[in-house]
């Protein structure tokens, strides 16, 4: 089956919020009505959980692994404590999924530990440690990937000393509404599907308006790099910019501002070649649910 065939509508991410809205509406009928509605949801969750448990018992490990690779199925397995992989394994897989993006910044990330209270401790390595965009890298790419794979996670911190690791408790069924949702936290980010990025040819630069921001996306060979449409040197738009061939190891991966002529290393996380202190603002581009998506920050105070 092709990746797009039979795919559940992506609105499943907001199913928890819609259910919670309906439960809140039931409160209009009084406390008893709300309690009955809550009990109905718990009964349905428990019923489906029991069915999932029987199905999992009949599956061979390889088939179960394939099913767990689907985000929706993985979420349901996690809610009912049926996921075949422990939290540390899932976090490592999530980090592997964002390593290509971190590599574009000349960096990497190590998992130090998962604490008993669900805190994931990481260490950024390479140039990511000092890159001005490291906070974007951590919050929009690493954190989102880890939380999607391991919603038990309570926090993600960068540490320099390993901490004792252990597996946190399984997710109870009554946390379904809190775990299966898509509302981003203010100051963090939300992933916006942009299937049009597949149409970019190698060497092309496209402009896109996403989440109230205008950004440029460059394709170099098979790699995509997204940046805010703003030159940090002159603060003007980069509209009309084209990829140019640079000197040395940069290769065919330089953006030149049409207004002030400043040059930026596309593969090097938008590092300024004329003034290293100038840095384009990058955005992670990853495949989510089989579709290319860009992580866009949510302004503080939003929501």
UniProtKB/TrEMBL annotation:
Pfam families: NifU, Rieske_2
One Gene Ontology term from the biological process aspect of the record: nitrate assimilation
GO molecular function: 2 iron, 2 sulfur cluster binding; iron ion binding; monooxygenase activity; nitrite reductase [NAD(P)H] activity; oxidoreductase activity, acting on paired donors, with incorporation or reduction of molecular oxygen
Keywords associated with the record: 2Fe-2S, Iron, Iron-sulfur, Metal-binding, Nitrate assimilation, Oxidoreductase
Iron-sulfur listed as a keyword: yes
Residue ranges constituting the Rieske domain according to the UniProt record: 191-294
SUPFAM superfamilies assigned: Fe-S cluster assembly (FSCA) domain-like, ISP domain
Entry keyword Transport: no
Function: May be involved in the formation or repair of [Fe-S] clusters present in iron-sulfur proteins.
The protein, known as: Rieske 2Fe-2S domain-containing protein
Species annotation: Gordonia asplenii
